[in-house]
Design a protein that fits this description.
Blueprint (H helix, E strand, L loop, with lengths): L1 H17 L2 E7 L6 H5 E7 L11 E3 L9 E3 L9 E6 L11 E9 L10 E6 L18 E8 L9 E12 L7 E4 L6 E4 L3 E10 L6 E9 L10 E8 L5 H5 L4 E7 L5 E13 L2 H20 L1
Antiparallel strand pairs: 1-16, 2-5, 3-4, 4-16, 5-15, 6-12, 6-16, 7-8, 7-15, 8-9, 9-10, 9-11, 12-13, 13-14
Helix pairs in contact: 1-4
Length: 298
């Protein structure tokens, strides 16, 4: 009986290893310099005439529970469009699903047409590599985004938004060409509330195609009060993106705008990848098998 239990225990360990290990990085923006030391900030617009503005500004209060955060409205122009790329760690999409999440606080008044929050995997840290199409952007990427479909109606506590998957393809010289999936049905977000946006990026077996799904959870005005969660079912990118699909070194990124899109603050960026451990699995499975053989011989 003891041998049986021991063998079963070994098999259990081997099966547990099959689920893999999660490698996670996160930035809470509570330490001065978090933004500028851990992110490469590439600007699409709004900075040429205003030196000293990196596109986003880290602030010491106003974030989740009054903590530090990234101010989206502090840029030098009303059309500022910037992408922040997490430069501490690169990832290989072939190793497993990559999850990016970030908190966003919705403004009470804004124009429509830009992005509330846009997250994704981008090919490089170099200048002009943004989650965006059109010159001067020259990045390959796979991404998910939420954006308003109309400006808030005066006096209304909510406003309409939509979800969309977008892929980008560039030669590295010509401007990025973007390919958009169909927008989701409109949904209302509460003005002034914090939301946790999560997107999962999975490299599929179909050449040049990613599967992307996600969720958006209401967390109240303080970012700590859990509310309703909307989920966005996984969907394949609508057009092939051969360069980002073939890339073995990609980086997590987020994008936002100064005045349009509805974002006030971002907080608590995180990126996680679950990677199977085949070597450990084979070793444990072999050990478990040996234990079973010994039990049968006994």
């Amino acid at each position: 009986m003891k041998r049986i239990k021991r063998a079963g225990f070994c098999v259990g360990i081997a099966l547990a290893a099959a689920s893999g290990l999660a490698y996670a990085d996160s930035v809470d923006f509570n330490t001065a310099g978090d933004l500028t030391s851990k992110f490469t900030i590439n600007n699409q617009t709004g900075t040429a005439a205003t030196p000293g503005f990196p596109g986003f500004v880290q602030v010491g209060s106003g974030g989740i529970g009054g903590s530090g955060a990234v101010d989206i409205t502090a840029g030098p122009s009303g059309t500022l469009d910037a992408t922040a790329i997490y430069n501490v760690q690169s990832y290989n999409p072939a190793s497993g699903t990559i999850r990016i999440s970030e908190y966003v606080k919705v403004l009470t008044q804004y124009t429509s047409g830009d992005r509330l929050i846009h997250v994704g995997l981008v090919d490089d840290l170099a200048a002009n590599h943004q989650l965006n199409g059109g010159a001067p952007a020259v990045a390959d990427f796979i991404s998910a985004r939420v954006f308003p479909t109309a400006a808030p109606v005066a006096g209304s506590p909510t406003a309409p938004f939509t979800w969309q998957v977008q892929a980008g393809q560039s030669t590295g010289a010509a401007a990025t060409g973007t390919f958009n999936n169909t927008q989701s049905a409109n949904f209302n977000l509460i003005l002034g509330d914090w939301y946790l946006f999560t997107a999962d990026f999975t490299k599929t077996a179909t050449p040049n195609v990613f599967s992307v799904g996600g969720s958006l959870q209401d967390l109240g005005t303080d970012g700590l009060t859990a509310g309703a969660t909307m989920t966005f079912a996984p969907e394949n990118s609508s057009a092939s993106a051969p360069d980002i699909y073939a890339d073995t070194t990609v980086y997590g990124a987020f994008r936002g705008h100064a005045a349009g899109g509805g974002a006030d603050l971002y907080d608590n960026f995180s990126i996680t990848q679950t990677v199977p451990e085949p070597t450990a699995l084979l070793g444990l499975a072999g050990f478990a098998t040996l234990a079973l053989i010994r039990r049968r011989r006994a």
